[in-house]
Amino acid sequence: MTATTVVHLLRHGEVDNPDRILYGRLPDFHLSETGERMAELAAGWFDGRDIAALYSSPLERARETAAPLAERTGLEVRLDDRLIESANKLEGRQVNGRSLRTDPSVLRHLYNPLKPSWGEPYGLIAARMVAVVKAVRKEAWGREAVCVSHQLPIWTARRAAERRRLWHRPDRRQCNLASVTSLTFEDQRLVSVGYTEPAAALYRAGPQVPGA
């Protein structure tokens, strides 16, 4: 008999970041009030689903996004370093169109978009995300699980699952704030990838800070 297991990759909600820096793995970046509402909406989307396990990146914004779902399901949020944001040499800086064109301290890291040269290699991100998905799938066999992570790791995991090349244009990622990317498996075979945006009504107009 075939077992159907779903691993949901939930991106965290909006972060309080008034200086609009690329915060990456820096500590003490928490959800904004809007981000907290996004987390509640995302948690509500899972109502009625058979959630067997709940994991999160150790960063504050991810743990805070997982909290409403933990309250609804009664599950413990377990932290897994493999779900953490990708490493980035530009974290702590304001990264915008101007700095990408004129700031030498930024430009010197941008010589190879295929790796990428400015941060953790896509291959390493894919390896750790695929590993955690496999482990969580095994634990939640025949049921569903949620892993709270970040935009680039989730998008890289999706591209790896769909057997697409890992390098890509960052402005074309389909992984908005508090969005859910759902990987459905029959036994160990991926049969579908779903995507939904439970908090779409709260999205702000204008560009987002990358690498979040």
TrEMBL record:
It holds the Pfam family His_Phos_1. It comes from Nocardiopsis suaedae. PANTHER family: BROAD-SPECIFICITY PHOSPHATASE YOR283W-RELATED (PTHR48100), PHOSPHOGLYCERATE MUTASE (PTHR48100:SF51). This is Histidine phosphatase family protein. Gene3D superfamilies: Phosphoglycerate mutase-like (3.40.50.1240). It comes from the Bacteria.
